[in-house]
Amino acid sequence: MLTIRQAHEGLKNKEFTSVDLTKAYLEKIKKSDLNSFLGFNEEWAIEQAENADAKIKSGKFEILCGIPCAIKDAIMVEGQKCTAASKILENYVAPYDATVIKKLKEQGVVILGKTNLDEFAMGGSGENSAFGPTKNPHDKTRVAGGSSSGSAASVAANEACFSLGSDTGGSIRLPSSFCGVTGLKPTYGAVSRYGLIAFGSSLDQIGPIAKNVKDAEIVFQAICGKDKMDATSADYNLEFSKASLKGLKIGIPKEYFVKGIDKEVEKIIKNAIKKAEDAGAEIIEISLKSSEFALACYYIIAPSEASANLARFDGIRYGMSVQDGNLLDVYLKSKGQGFGEEVKRRIMIGTYALSSGYYDAYYKKAEEVRQLIKQDFAKAFEKVDLIFCPVSPVPAIKMGERTNDPLSMYLMDIYTVSVNLAGLPALSLPAGKVENLPVGLQIIGNHFQENKIFAVAQEMEKVL
Ligand code: GLN
Which residues are catalytic? Predict the structure, then answer.
């Protein structure tokens, strides 16, 4: 099915209307058995498409006008449910639009519905959703990857032209890799987080998932920039980049190709690197020596921030409230029944790591390690333009394969979490397949160098 560009051309040349397009996607969604959507609103989608068609008729419209998209159900869309795939928010209706939604609406997009995710974006497989896992469109016995499972699966299965996900430790890149689509985790601060249900506030970023690099760039351009509602957001003008593979210095972290990586995945990534070299790039071995501590560091910082962020779901202020007994009972029962197992685990780890006796040993230490990880990247970017590496050490795993072993689940994040800890941008690009399962190449750039990533990724697209 269509890319954003193709759909835009079709709309411009009056080959079809946005209503036609929207109906076609809605049909796909209704027939789908992937569980990629938690909710969609047919009537509202058609209404948005009609409005877009009116705009198109007037002749003055932007590239995303009339394009049907899907939104991770952790991003607020006014008047629509926003569940974060949690029982505690099962009936919560968003009172306002996230800034990214406001921006997309200004362009006239059609929002088809809200996509499935790991509860509160905590997970790597999509299996932590309170409403059932998302299936991988390439093999329904396998996971779609998480936490933005539905956002990646819906684009891969042509249930949406593009989608938005969020990435705290890999949640855009991992499902993009598993589903064979292109996903960007932007530089921290490039995109406003206002209206995103917070998980780890110093790590979270909203980003696009799309059919190809150009589409990801188009969406990124539409959503990036300073927002007065998010003090961590930055002014951003995505400038055109002339970067090309010819003469490009690509860093390959030697620590990333050691034990634990699937041999077939390794082959695909090495082949991609070879193709870049054939096209004129200079391959340079780099060392990210603190990356061995990255997972431990992430799994202290992310749960610590989560434990603070999730304190607001107390059965009084938001969502589900179990009105039984005294005030303490309401707290205990609402949280006890509302949160799933993984969310509770993270709250407990985070609360422990932040408690007065342990703060120095865990949280403070992790923040120190985070600085070392940042420094590794800063040093590497003195020598190289971009870094190439895998997104995940394995292709999509079987449903249930790791659900009883959280640590083995966390290991899937080994190549993605450092990027969030350092606040860098990174893109997952389909690079090949192990049998029928897609594998993504990760392209990491320096802060605010998304343009370089896009330029080079588009060249890689041609040679892969
Ligand atoms: N898999 C990671 C985790 O469980 C990352 C999640 C995310 O990026 N939202 O925390």
Answer: 72, 147, 171
